[in-house]
Amino acid sequence: MMIHLEHVSKHYQMGAVRVTALDDVSLTIDQGEFVVVLGPSGSGKTTLLNIIGALDTPSTGTVRINGNDLLLHRAADRFKFRRETVSFIFQTFNLFPGLTALENVQFVLDMANAPRNRERAAEVLTSVGLGERLHHFPHELSGGEQQRVAIARALATGNPVLLADEPTGELDFQTGIQILGLLQAQAAAGKTVLVVTHNREISRIADRVIELSSGRIVRDGPPRDGKAAISDLQW
Amino acid sequence: MKNWRLWLRWSWRDLRKRWLQVLAIGLIIALGTGVFAGLGGQKTWRLNSYDLSYNRLHMYDLKLSLAEGSFVSQDKVLATLEGIPGVAHLETRLIVPTLVQAQHGEKQVVVRGRMVGVDVSDGGPHINSVYVDEDSGRTLTNTDAGQAVAVVEYKFARHYGLQPGDPLHVSGDVTLDFVGAGHSPEYFLIVPETGTFLLGEASFAVLFVPLETVQRLTEHEGLVNDVVFLLAEGADRETVRAEIEQRMAAALPATGFKLLDKEDDPVYPALYNDAEGDQWVWNMVALLFLFGAAMGAFNLAGRIVEAQRREIGIGMALGLPRRWIAFRPMLIGVQIALLGTIFGLLIGWLLSQFFARTLRDLVPLPYWDLSFYLPGYVRATALGVTLPFLATLIPVWRAVRVAPIDAIRSGYLVAKGGGLSRAIAHLPLPGKSFTQMPLRNVLRSPWRTALTVLGIAIAITVMTFIVGAMDSYTSTLQRADDAYRYMSPDRILVDLNFFYPLTNQEITDLAQLTGANGQPLFTASEAALRLGGTLIRGDQEIDTVLELHDMDRALWVPHLLEGALTAEQPGLILSEKAAADLGVAVGDTVTLEHPRREGLFSFRMVQTELPVIGIHDNPIRPLTYMPLQGAALMGLEGVANQVILAPAAGMTRETIKEVLLAQPGVASVSSIIEFSEAVEDLVALITQMLAVVQVVVVILAFLIAFNTTSISVDERAREIATMFAFGLPMRTVTRMQMAENAVMGVMGTLLGLAAGWGTLQSVFTTRAEQELADMRLAITIEPGTILLAAVLGVLVVGLTPLLSVRRMRRMDIPSTLRVME
User: DSSP labels for B756-813?
Assistant: First the structure.
């Protein structure tokens, strides 16, 4: 699954002021890459994630996923794209409060008309270490457990692209490390994983770090001091 | 704290974000306060207007009516009754049934009616005066004495568009000069002897004619059968009654009579009770609206406060006093209150104008007092301001009492629980997880669900009650119609002006009548008796219309629920309602007070104990039947005052009435079909009124549902955005919301139907007994009404989320997800 952006820019008009969130960004991400998009607040990293995930459209430029131009898609097609190609993991988890952990994962499987969705959901949750918490509601789970449910939900359908926005932002260090471990495992299994963060420490475990500043790519390459193991991380 | 502008600006932004929801709640409050304001004064209007009209036209204090068929010398009556202490004035009258033929342009009408012969000497009548306004001709004057002139009762004239000068004829083909259309107290409503309001103004014509003229036309020169009295101020009514009874019994022992207070008049108490009853109903409807609005306001306020929870916490953290923290959410309550009150007063004013016009139309009185009813508007304003204020105060009060740290928490640490959705978490519900979500969402917030369900239930309760009341009334009328028409449905009823022997021409000639082409008008005939009386058992008394038929040969006999049409000795066939009210069954005895002939023109009222031999199915209480052999009890063997005729094929009612009008002895002619037509007309009128009710209920249900959906979309914006982020199509999300609304709609509809039914039962068993004593109302809710409730409560409510599609389509998904930079 190849993601290709070509001269993508995104502008917002805030009254009389024109804000440029992304400025002529071009990049290609190959299948199985674990990419961290790094930058301070306001650098455009979330906008980039949203555009890749078809939640937003660029003002100029093209976005191709496996050769298909997203901009040529109708709204219905973009919905389908999000069902079948990308999966999101949010900083604030965004679980459905009225559904149990099992049902939150089952939800996306039902959308995809997957068979044996209840069993599959249970398997995925167990694989992220929540086998004992299937029937708990989100408010009965800790932050880390909720983020695991969110990851399980993202993994359940087997979509080839995972887009994670500050997945450890609400979590303590230990829990954050566990979450990063799960994401890294997915990349190792062949999925394309894109993690957006302002935490430079997290970028050390990536295959590739794309640094943004004021909407522009200022660096695109391996981690500055080489790829580190998760166990080496500290923040 | 003194920076009012900042707070008002902030509140303005809050309002702009939620203006549609605030408007919706405000409109609901406006409906409730509007009904209070606009209709709060209807009882006062009506009571004041009745008082004014009755006083100015000098409604009688006492009325003496001779037994049916009795006439006495006017001079003798006046001599007997003159000089009674306490009587300020008395007047004699001659009241006789007649057939009335009137015409305006091409339109001709022939109906049953009554001539009221009034004393016009000395500018009378001075009791139960006849008032004619300047646009309707003139009233009777003393120069009209003995002249063939008439004032036609106002409502009858208005119904047919009759104008003074239009041709007017009465029985015997006598022409009267139509000089004016007027009002008189006894006829502010037209109530026939069967006690219903059904055969009203369109089918019964009252003519006010000089006394001497009626005496001459009916060949009762010098005779009267009615006296009305006005008492002097401070006179003791019971003493006067006793004196009248004593003098009459002494002077005219063979003549029966009834002495009525004005409170016994069929119309007088009905008008006053109606006003009270209607006000009660309007107040209840207004309260229901306001209750629904209060819950909507409570719902909205609670959610607004919840949405501002973190900001409340931040305020607390900054040290802002609680009263200032409360200020911003309370302003929402004030805005709702202002909107609701201002719109409510406007709606109230419009309603009051509409109602005043309708009132004047339905019950045209000579004098109306429709002054501005300030207390109604004051009450409405108080309610319109207080309710939303209180509804906002409660959640705000709770919110500012939360510990600051709990208020300021964010993210997953304040995720709300599953509510009651845990209860079904392990239930194997059909469908996918996102098809189960609507039910989960309903159970997740039980308190909010309850408020919404109650709001919908209230709208359905109002509708069920009002429409159910109409259903009950129309179904009762339909049963009466069925009872009349199950046999010889087109029969003609001819009331004679006196009791004639069966062999008299006045009776025998009728069956032989032919039309213009020589064809017989009728194929069969039956002679019968029809009298007024009273059923008595214990301290219960019921006025009745007694019909005596030869049950073996009659063209029509009552359809029985129990008992038999004949028995070895004369007996009574009562209506179901009369039997229930008297507490009797077949086999029990009842006292019948009835006229007994003592002389050619004199009847005395006597009481006879009679067995109940049957119970018939007509819901009209006063109708009582007896086999013809019972005529002997009344001294009326071998005579009749009514002839029932079966029309020949092809003979029209108009032809028949025209021919009958010219026959001697014919007082009035009516057709059973006219009853059916009157029922149809009333049902059509009721249906029109129902349309207004249905529109109001649709608006109310829609506003409540719209508000709920709109609030839900706001509250669940992140959930909805998350679903979109995972690719769930918009139509699926919309269907989920519709399903959720439909679930609440079903709950609300079922609750509303049950509450409406309960209200109907409660109101009918209490108020109906007072106001509709003459009908056996079977409380009915038609299947169509239930279907309508389902459509309103489920379909309309369920479809409301479609109005949010545009908002969801325009949702900025990333912002809503709060993806942070």
Answer: HHHHHHHHIIIIIHHH-TTB-PPP---HHHHHHHHIIIIIIHHHGGGGGHHHHHT--H
pLDDT tens digits, one per residue of B405-440 = 566 655 544 455 556 666 666 666 667 777 778 888
Q: Which of A46, A48, A2 has the alpha carbon at shortest distance from A23? A: A48
Q: Which residues of A touch B819 (CB under 8 A)?
A: 46, 49-50, 90-91, 165
Residue B618, classified by CB atoms within 10 Å of its CB into exposed (0-12), middle (13-18) or buried (19+), is buried
**ipTM for the predicted complex:** 0.74
- B-chain residues within 8 Å CB-CB of A169? 820
Contact B726 A82 (CB under 8 A): yes
B698-748 pLDDT, tens digit each: 777 777 777 777 777 777 788 888 899 999 999 999 998 899 889 989 999
* Residues 6+ positions from B692 with CB-CB distance below 8 Å: none
CB B562 within 8 A of CB B614: yes
pLDDT at B506: 83
Pick the range with the lowest mean pLDDT from B296-305, B343-352, B471-480, B580-589: B296-305
Test A90 with B817 for CB contact under 8 angstroms.
Answer: yes
Q: Which residues of A touch B813 (CB under 8 A)?
A: 50, 55-56
10 Å CB burial of residue B667 (0-12, 13-18, 19+) is buried
Whether residue B422 and residue A143 make contact (CB cut-off 8 A), yes or no, is no
B806 in contact with A, Cβ within 8 Å: no
Complete DSSP assignment for B566-597: --SS--EEEEHHHHHHHT--TT-EEEEEEEEE
B813 at A interface, C-beta within 8 A: yes
CA–CA separation, B710 and B303 (whole Å): 11
Residue of A nearest to B732 (CA): A111
Nearest of B332, B280, B287 to residue B306 by alpha carbon: B332
pLDDT at B416: 54
B419 shares contact with chain A (CB less than 8 Å):
yes
Whether B820 sits inside 8 A of A139 (CB atoms) is: no
pLDDT by residue (tens digit) across B758-792?
988 888 777 766 667 788 888 888 898 899 888 88
Global pTM value: 0.74
* Candidates A56, A93, A108; nearest CB to B726: A108
